[in-house]
Amino acid sequence: MSAPPPIPARESPPPSAQSTLAKLWWAARNPPADPRVSFAGKTVLVTGANTGLGFQAAVKYAALHASRVLLAVRCADKGEAAKADIVRLARCSADTVRVLPVDLSSFESVQAFVPALRRETDHLDVVLLNAGMANPTFVRSPAGYEMALQVNVLSTALMAVLLLPLLRAAPAPAHLTFVNSIAHADVQPDWCRGSLLQSCNDEAAWNVQRSYGMVKLLAMAVMHALARTAPADRLIVNACCPYMCKTDLGRNWGLAAKIPMAAFQAVFARTAEQGARTLVSATALGPESHGRFWHHDILYPLGDLAKDDEFMQKCWSEVLHVITTVQPDLHDHLGNKA
């Protein structure tokens, strides 16, 4: 008898022409399949790994026999507490899990993180870029960028490029997966006339709902660009969406918003564990997923703007300008292909 597939095919396809509430209702009752693939012998890095989706993904990697699970977290103490829980839940050795502090609100912290990581490992088999945030108001990072733009796009892009040599050093193929959102498909062209990056950073025009999708669309441009840096038989680059999950992504919101959101999520959201299934399975997909978007256990169509190669290249050029200003040698990491 043949072994079951590591990522079972979805029997019930997600709805495509229904309302958002209908889609959320369906998703909460049709969670992704739990991946059964082995990560034995692999070194895995997860950002934002001390809570929510990242924590649950780290538990799964450890339970699926990853040789090393590296937790990139903002607070070392919280990371160590998460490590203890991961070791307990996954029933793995404490030596399997390592905590590495990094603050994605700071370019300097990302730059310091990579040399520290190199002291831990000479390669990475899997990188899951999960760290993210969503604020109810416009807040600037120390570098002067709107905070979600800084964390979800600019610092994440800088980290991804700096990690390319470690990924390329892995036995082929390595995996680089960006946690994104189907909200990228909601962005309309008139929301970002001129520059998407500048629109995300425009305090006067900032809108909490629009901003979330715009930041995710800009992050999709990063994924597209890095997918061009290596053939899929060496490095598989993709993005995924866990859909609405019960996490602390809205931790910076006030109580008046948290209470109704918790009630809404109780009915319409997946659990963090269920959402993490999408993240982990995305990092186990084959070359067919290179440059593509994993959602509801299928390779899902991109939004219209994300399918516009010229627009995506323009967005990437804007991001690249920012991060090469921070670190001019990034073109060496990219191999001048992006």
TrEMBL record:
Keywords: Oxidoreductase. InterPro entries: NAD(P)-bd_dom_sf (IPR036291), SDR_fam (IPR002347). The keyword Oxidoreductase applies. One of its GO terms (molecular function) is oxidoreductase activity. PANTHER family: PHOSPHATIDYLINOSITOL-GLYCAN BIOSYNTHESIS CLASS F PROTEIN-RELATED, SHORT-CHAIN DEHYDROGENASE_REDUCTASE PHMF. This is Short-chain dehydrogenase/reductase SDR. It comes from Macrophomina phaseolina (strain MS6) (Charcoal rot fungus).
